[in-house]
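Note to self: user wants both folds in one dump. Writing first protein now.
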Amino acid sequence: MKKIFLSVLFVYASLIYANEPMFSPDTEWHYWKINSLEQTDTMLTYGIVDTLINGVAFQFTHDALLRTEGSKVWCIIDSMGESVEQLLYDFDMQIGDSIRTLFFPYYDPEEPPHYAQVTQIDTITLLDGRSARRISYDSRADDIEHVGNVNGILEAAHCLVAPDGAERRFICCTYGDYLLYEVETGLCDKITGMDVIISDDSSTFPFLRDGQIFILRGDKIYTLQGQEVKE
């Protein structure tokens, strides 16, 4: 009877874990933003918030929508005016498996696909005590569970250049008071004392209309590509 109870408890716990998002709401990604045109250096911090669209649970960060399905994370990308989901992370992969290269925020279904192949898998312990898989590839920077890519959460998708011409360098990822990952030892400490722009996306709301995802920021509406929609 005890074995049956433990088995049921394990299955129940597994189902709960499988439905949890890959990135906890208290996670933040910190960047060094260098604008050569304005000759300014600032720290840019992104948070992540949970949201529901048409009854489906998503997370919103970096002006992008993510959806967790077990150990997989899907990203909403624009495909010729339609919102489609593409695989961004897959922490169930084994050595020899491949994942398709994405280009955020656009997706061209006619573009010949490019893939990165898994070459090594390690299990590491994050500073908050959680175990995490670290996946290495032949043509993509490493991915770490609960952190994302070691170059930034969306950098695995080869983001387009910012329209303001600013260069954005990933520094570290934190979870509450814990430092989960930093590019160089001690680099995250440089956030202290610098001008920090906090972008927690809490004032920005994604919504679905006519099968397409739009972003409401203040009193203005934008497409996933950042183009303002004139009503």
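First done. Writing the second protein, which came from a different request thread.
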Amino acid sequence: MQRVEARAVMLEATHAVEIEPGVFLPPDHYKGTEWRTGLETMSGDIRWTALQYKIELTADQFASMGAPDVTKNSISEEIDVTKFVRSGELTVT
């Protein structure tokens, strides 16, 4: 059986972080989600994946950061920022 654990977190960028080529997340605090998945083993233990992180930005926020091709039909964009947390460019506060 697969399980998912998630919790709300705040992520802090102390400097501009290039989250995609040409798209810069300005210094600020961002609401995010910390999550991981687990798979139950035959013995009943759960093996968890490493923690992962994502933030959700409105389409307007994302476009103002330099994102190309943000359509008017898009309400929000969910961005996987796990590698930036792991590298220390974003911190969980």
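Dump finished. Worth passing along: The chain has one domain: 2-87.
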